Request: fold
Amino acid sequence: MKRKLALLLTVTMLATSVYTPWLANAAEFTSGEENSLYTEEKPETEEIEEEPEADTEEAGEEEVQEDILSDENTDTGEVEEIQPSEEMTEEEETQELLPEPADGEQESAFEDGQTEEAGAGTTGVWNGLNYKVSNGEVTILSVVYDQHFDKDGKKTGEDRCQQTDGKIPSSIAGYPVTEIAGGAYANCINMTEVVIPSTVKRVEREAFSGCTSVRSISLPDNGVTICAGVFQGCTALNSVHIPASVKADGFIGESPAYAGVFARCSALRNVTFGEGITAIPKGFFLSCTGLLSINIPDSVTNIEKNAFNSCVNLKDVHLSAKLESIEAGAFNNCESLSKIQLPSTLKVLRGSAFSGTSLTEINIPPQMKTEDYTAANRAWGGPFAGLTTLKKVTFDQGMEEIPRGIFYSPGSMLMLEEVVLPDSVKKIGYRAFCDCGYLKEITLPKNLEFIDADAFWNCTDLKLSRSELPASLKVINGSAFYGCKNIDRIVFPDGLEFLGGSAFGGCTGLTEINVPAGVDTAYREAGPFVDCSNLKKVTFAKGIDNVPYSIFENCKGLETVEIPDTVKEIESYAFSGCAGLTKVNIPKNVTQIDKDAFLKCSALKEIQLPESLGYMGSEVFKACTALEKITFPSRNIANGTGSNIFAECSSLKNATIPSAVTKLSDELFDGVSENFAIYGYTGSYAESYAKDHSFKFVSVGTTEKLNGVLKEISTYECERRNEKRPDR
Reply:
């Protein structure tokens, strides 16, 4: 009874237009007329509908509950809630239930304009839009679904076909609309335009996706942030204007889940930009299949990541005259793009910027660089990675450094055939032309000073137009020309200071080189000519004082070497693995032979160690399996010898050890021939060493002290003395 009286009171008040504070407040909150883009006429009467709520009883039956407003409180204007009666009328029990809300949507329990006061988050429905008020700002959550039922009341489907108004309100319930939630207007297939007011600060993912009838879009110039896929699949859209301040957010283009703002807008042909725009936002036109041409205004300095990625029909691009950077993937997979002119102002070109295009030639501006981590590993290719159509590259005049990894293409070989380098170039960067297997010839600039590691790695067809490298060249880093099989002759400049490990490694066509005086090599790396299997002739410069570390390691075709008398040190691994080396002279001024210097020189037969020698490292001649004879210097090796110097020299038959030698390592001759013999002087250290190590000893004479100095007397001289001695 109490409930019926409340209903009667409410209807009476509406019908008689009696003013009450609570009614005034409700109307004001509902329409938000003063701040809205649109106004509606107030109805003379309002119908109070009963909204169902799902019960949770096991029986699964639903009952209808109502929130009934109480009598007017004339003192405060507040509304007192009246609890519904536990007893239901027959009419209420037989009332049809309203349909359930669509998946992912919250059914509102309020009339248009009514809200539930919920502290920081107030929700409601306005003109068919679910919305939320938070901190005094409105987020449009979604369009209310239209639900369809058959004659028996069973739901047959739902859609948003009735939503045709794409003019987004600037305010709801007196609060500014600042955000449009993800998918809010998605699949409103009868909406023909979208107008976003200047109050909106952010449009979330796929807010208008699938709106296939939208032909025009108006974006505010207020710094609004647009997220992934906002207008994707708007297949009727044919033109759009991008304001200068618009920004993109989210992970656009990072995965298929984050589509481009205009992805699959197959009719979009005309794009204009706001005056003063400085950047094309990331992913804005990703997969925009309708785009055929684009004119980037001269105010633009940056084209952001994936901006035009996968615009497969884009053929004509005019870049800004003030452009400074093109970010990663900006034009990636624009497979119809066959030509483009990079402006002289360009400073940065990032990975895969033009991968997957049809470019056949390109210019590189003089200030341009790639990222610091380009080509740092096999996953980070250069801006043209995978580009199989590119044939010719011209570096513009004034360029001093070829950017690192600029044509590095991990996993696929570029078809680049011709490169033009200006004489202004001083440095060729790391992996700049790495794996350009079709590059046939290059002229190195006359002012070149530095070639970084892997610069021409595996350019298998490459030939140098001149064998003589530039006189200005100081450094060739590791693997710079590794695997360049067509290089046959190299003349290094006298001023060359450093040759990195494997700098010309695997250059199997190389037959002749010179070694400049003062050149250094990388310690603990493979030699600069490692695996140059056909290297035959080596010329050392006058005045050279050392044979550098590992310089001819594994040069199996090297047969003879003439080392200048100026050399004082043969460094570690210098001739290691030179399996074809049959003869080598060790100069008279050499004082030190370092570890493994002649390791596994399996064709070397004889070695004469110079009198100047003061030190030999470990395993210097180890595994020289053809070595038959070795002669130690006549004076003691002051700094001693390392271990296993002649270990595994299986053909070694004898070693001559002068009396001055007083210390040898125990493993010096491990693994030599069974018939191995030590030749030495009776009573010398050589004799005791042979006895201690079970080697045969052959005396070549004796010793005597003359004026306190030990003197060797050969067997021949002893015999002559005995012949001259008179018989007693």
Remarks:
- Confidence is low (pLDDT under 50) at residues 1-120.
- The longest strand covers residues 696-706.
- The chain is about 5% helix and 20% strand.
- The CA atoms of residues 233 and 264 lie 5 Å apart.
